Fold this protein.
Amino acid sequence: MAPGQLTLVKSGDIKKWACLRCPGGCGEVISLSLNPNQRPRWLVSEDFWLRPTIHPSVHQKNECGCHFWIKKGRITWCRGGRPSKTIEKRNL
Ligand SMILES: [Zn+2]
């Protein structure tokens, strides 16, 4: 999965998952359930240029704690949702 890309996992015509790498720098893969029967779940819409908009916002509960919206293919950070510290990982 390339950074800065949203991957939609579909089953037939049904969108199941939206996956992206966290834009906050931790690099974790975020999987958003699009299944309407599950909670929480997200809605993805695409405009004419296939730019995704995701509702509601994405809030990571990990060390990075980022909180952002994806609107028309762009990341919009919530107030205080952009990680102030950069997390770098090293192999041990
Ligand atoms: Zn993150």
About this structure: The chain has one domain: 6-77. The beta strands are 6-11, 14-21, 29-33, 43-46, 52-59, 67-71, 74-77. The pocket of zinc ion is lined by residues 22, 24, 26, 28, 60, 64, 66 (CB under 6 Å).
